[in-house]
Amino acid sequence: MATFLNGEDARTCGRGNAIITEEILLLNLYISDAVDNDLLTVIVNKLSIINVNATPITGTQITLGTTYYDVWQNITENTVLDNQMNEVIAYFKRNGFVISRSSTDGTNITWTIKW
Q1: How do the domains of the chain map onto residue ranges?
Q2: Are 85 and 67 in contact (CB under 8 A)?
């Protein structure tokens, strides 16, 4: 017997949940590091480095990907990438953070998260 997806299930399956999860996890690591240093804001861009199990990780998929910047700036259209960024933003807003996107180089996104 066939099972059919509804719109929400199809969107969830097709939007790259692994990327959303990884972005949220890495941003939370950057937040934890900032909290440990008595900060109330973290800025994460393509040059930011966080250590994960003694391995340095630079940036995040969204901050490293120029295609995300292009979608954010409406240079190109990609509903999957747009949805991924919106899910990351929604997660942090739901959890009491203020999150915004900016760019210092005109090609990559920088996340600013405040608490």
Answers
A1: 7-114
A2: no
Structure tokens at 20: 């959303």
In the chain, the N- to C-terminal Cα span, in Å, equals 49
What is the reported pLDDT for 8? Answer: 66
> Residue 9: its pLDDT value, please?
58
Tokens 């997806």 -> residue: 5
Please tell me whether residue 7 adopts helix, strand or coil conformation. helix
Cβ within 8 Å of residue 64, ≥6 positions away:
46, 58, 108
Q: How far apart are CA 25 and CA 5, in angstroms?
A: 28
Give, for 1, the enclosing helix (H) or strand (E).
none
Please, which pLDDT band fits residue 3 given cuts at 50, 70 and 90?
low
Instruction: Please say whether the beta carbons of 82 and 109 come within 8 A.
Output: no
pTM of this structure:
0.86
- How buried is residue 76: exposed, middle or buried, by Cβ count under 10 Å (0-12/13-18/19+)? exposed
Tokens of 39: 């900060």
